[in-house]
């Protein structure tokens, strides 16, 4: 029960052709490719947003520490 052999893949391919028809397969592949591309783009955008939020929090924390140090020096 390891990986699929060539004969298994051929059976899967035949079933797909029977279900969708030979003309529909390129359209399905194109749609799948666009979906994956959009998903990856959105994941990159989400990562950028997270990095920006972390940087803002770090800046706020540094500012708060600096303010506390200044107050301590004045006292």
TrEMBL record:
Coiled coil (UniProt feature): 36-71
Cell compartments where the protein resides: Cell membrane
GO CC annotations, alphabetized: TAT protein transport complex
Domain of life, per lineage: Bacteria
Molecular function via GO: protein transmembrane transporter activity
One Pfam family hit: TatA_B_E
Record's keyword terms, sorted: Cell membrane, Coiled coil, Membrane, Protein transport, Translocation, Transmembrane, Transmembrane helix, Transport
GO BP term (any one): protein transport by the Tat complex
Spans traversing the lipid bilayer: 6-22
Keyword Cell membrane in annotation: yes
InterPro entries noted in UniProt: TatA/B/E, TatA/E
Topology in membrane: Single-pass membrane protein
Family: Belongs to the TatA/E family.
Subunit structure, as described in the record: Forms a complex with TatC.
Cited function: Part of the twin-arginine translocation (Tat) system that transports large folded proteins containing a characteristic twin-arginine motif in their signal peptide across membranes. TatA could form the protein-conducting channel of the Tat system.
Name listed for the protein in its UniProt record: Sec-independent protein translocase protein TatA
Organism this protein belongs to: Campylobacter geochelonis
């Amino acid at each position: 029960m390891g990986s699929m052999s060539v004969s298994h893949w051929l059976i899967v391919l035949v079933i797909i052709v029977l279900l969708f028809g030979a003309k529909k397969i390129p359209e399905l592949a194109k749609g799948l490719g666009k979906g994956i591309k959009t998903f990856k783009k959105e994941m990159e955008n989400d990562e950028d947003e997270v990095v920006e939020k972390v940087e803002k929090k770090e800046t706020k924390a540094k500012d708060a520490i600096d303010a506390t140090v200044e107050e301590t020096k004045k006292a």
